[in-house]
Structures are given as C-alpha cells and as structure tokens.
Design goal:
Layout lengths: L3 H14 L3 E2 L24 H4 L9 E9 L20 E9 L5 H15 L7 E6 L3 H11 L6 E4 L5 E3 L4 E12 L19 E16 L2 E15 H8 L9 H14 L8 H19 L8 H19 L11 H8 L4 H5 L1 H10 L1
Parallel strand pairs: 1-2, 4-5
Antiparallel strand pairs: 2-3, 3-9, 4-7, 6-7, 7-8, 8-9
Helix pairs in contact: 3-4, 6-7, 6-9, 7-8, 7-11
The structure holds serine.
Length: about 350
C-alpha cells in the first residue's frame, strides 16, 4: 500500500531527479498577497515568478503545498463531510516550470509518474483538454497512446484555470481515473460528470496569461507550467478507497474521533467524524501559520471551521471539548512532513481548548 507519506516522498523524488528544486510548502497565509485569503494552490508562492516580477535561481520546482479552500473563490466548506472528496484543508503536490519546459514535458512527466512510478492502470486513465488546445490533444495521443475518445475537449472554465479575479492563468488538462461501474457517474463533459466514478486527480495548467482585471488579460513573459495533484485523491486511488476519508491518514484521525466518542466511524453519523477530521487539519495548520480565531477576516473563517467541528463533536455526544485531544494524532501523522505542526503543537492545543 502507498501511504500518504510514501506518495509525497515518491512525487518529490521523481521531480528532484528531473532537475526540480524541492521547496517547502509556503504558509497558508500568503505573503504579500492581499488578493487571497488563504493559499489555495501550489502556485501561490510562485505567483510573482510566473508574472516575471521576481527572479529565482532555478527554473523548475516541486512542492507538497498546504492548501485551505474555505472562503473566497474556492470555497468548499459546506460540502465537507458529506462528499467523498471535499476538504477545507488538503495537500497539493505540484511541479512547476518558470519559462523552462512547457506542455510536452509536463505531459510526459505526469504520464511517466502515474503509470511507471505509481502504477496506475493505463486503461482506466483519461484526460481533458481545453476545447481549442490541439497541441495538448496531440501530445496526449503521442505520449500516452490514447485514442481520441480518451481525450475529451472541454470548453468551460473547468479547463481554464485561474487563481482568482487576477493573477496568472491558462488552459489546463485534467487527468481522470475511471473507478468502474460500481460508482455512479459519467465521463467529464457528460451530464453525469459530477458523480464519483470518474475521479479527477491531477490538473496540469499551461500558464500563458495574466489576468489584470475583468476582461483584461496579457501574455506572461514566458509560457510556464503549474500542476496540482490532490494527495488525498491519488492516495485514495492507490489504496483502493472510494472516499478520500478512507485513506490511511484520514482514517487514523477518524479512528481517534471514534475512540474519543465511542461512536461507530462507519455508522449513520460518519459525516460528523469526517467533518471533525477535516476541520482538525484546517484548524491546526492555520494556527501553526499564525491565524487565531477572531470575528473578522481569516480569524473568522478559522472560528467558523473550529465551531463547525465542535458542533459535530456535540452531535457525537461529546460533553467535553474534543478537538484538542486529537492534535497528538495529527502531529504523529503529519509532523514529519510539516515540522511547523510540531513547533506549534502547544499553541494549537491551547487555542482549540479555549475556543
Ligand atoms: N493551480 C492549479 C489548481 O489549483 C494546478 O495546481 O488546480
């Protein structure tokens, strides 16, 4: 079985071998970027590198990035706990090219990693491209040997990625895995695309433009690459789990909730376990990055996340504060990859207990 920790290491090693600088995750509170509430993708720390404002001593990088989507453009809060895939906090594995390689290498790297290193079955894979992106279509045909039916052209914003109202953006190509008939859902672009059967797990963005404002878009100085693979999704595929909440890492947190409440983690109240596990991660990582609960801005979003989790703890019958008791397990699972969690452990515990 490929654990979350093993997948993260394999991804970063693969790109290190291909000349990428391996960098730590940037904080969840973006540095010098008032347009964003929280870091919501791996490319955020490289925004100014893509636009040419900032120069770095490398032209390729790879990261495992902490992300929170709970406020602003990418807001998943209300769905969390009730679907197989939504999270407030998740990790995004990404490789980046700053005017170095472009579509051909990005597709080649992705294909080699998922089929040769991670061992996904080729027959189950399919991709989307932006409707007029003939170049990406032809590259997928050549590199993966896909028939035309496995390369689906999509004309909506699903295949044109942007970080927000402004910032770098471009057409993208998403990689899907067909989990089989046991799950409901149709291929991307079909009426049933929102079902769980076809799981999108990696997005390759061909960064070509910068959005300056509504209707105002300019070309980036050099075409670049930004990819993002949800680690929880690829772990689910590799572990044969149909829900992200059944992967090793999330399961460890959920079992800690079950042990603390004596409520069956797979029974009728399983959504509450999932809410708590997810929100524990968001809360702990936000506190570790300097956010404290308050009544405005980022602190208010954190407060809503914490209180939503605490309401679900009450639904599970907890009479005493529960969340702080779970921090130990989270630190055990994720503290090696994210040492800031270890450093902030006492503050996280105290903040959750007081709230
Ligand atoms: N920025 C893209 C995304 O968030 C790829 O990393 O999907």
């Amino acid at each position: 079985m490929s654990s979350v920790n093993e997948i993260r290491t394999a991804f970063l090693e693969f790109f290190a071998q291909r000349g990428h600088e391996i960098l730590p995750s940037s904080p969840l509170v973006p540095r010098n970027d008032p347009t964003l509430m929280f870091t919501n993708a791996g490319m955020v720390q490289f925004k100014n590198v893509f636009t040419g404002i900032e120069k770095r001593p490398y032209s390729r990088a790879a990261t495992a990035q902490k992300c929170v989507r709970a406020g602003g453009k990418h807001n998943d809060l209300d769905n969390v706990g009730y679907t197989a895939r939504h999270h407030t906090f998740f990790e995004m594995l990404g490789n980046f090219s700053f005017g170095d390689y472009f579509k051909a290498d990005a597709i080649e790297f992705a294909w080699t990693l998922i089929t040769e290193v991670l061992g996904l079955t080729k027959d189950r894979l399919l991709v989307t491209v932006y409707h007029d992106d003939d170049e990406a279509f032809d590259l997928w045909k050549k590199i993966a040997g896909f028939s035309d039916s496995k390369i689906i052209r999509i004309s909506t914003s699903d295949n044109f990625w942007s970080m927000g109202d402004t910032g770098p953006c471009g057409p993208c190509s998403e990689i899907f895995f067909d989990q089989g008939e046991k799950l409901f859902g149709g291929p991307p672009g079909s009426a049933d695309q929102d079902g769980d059967r076809y799981l999108e797990f990696w997005n390759l963005v061909f960064m070509q433009y910068e959005q300056l404002g509504p209707g105002e878009r300019v070309a980036l100085p050099r075409p670049s690459i930004d990819t993002g693979m949800g680690i929880e999704r690829i772990a689910a595929l590799l572990q044969g789990a149909t829900s992200n909440y059944d992967i090793d890492l999330m399961r460890a947190l959920i079992l800690a909730v079950a042990a603390a409440t004596s409520v069956d983690p797979d029974g009728p109240q399983k959504a509450s376990h999932r809410v708590i596990a997810d929100h524990l991660r968001a809360s702990a990582f936000l506190v570790a990055d300097g956010v404290l609960p308050s009544n405005e801005g980022r602190g208010y979003v954190l407060r809503r996340i914490m209180r939503r989790a605490m309401r679900h703890a009450q639904l599970l019958g907890a009479k005493e504060p529960l969340m702080w008791r779970l921090v130990l397990v989270l630190v055990r699972e994720m503290g090696t990859a994210y040492p800031e969690l270890v450093r902030a452990e006492a503050l996280i515990v105290e903040t959750l207990r007081l709230e």
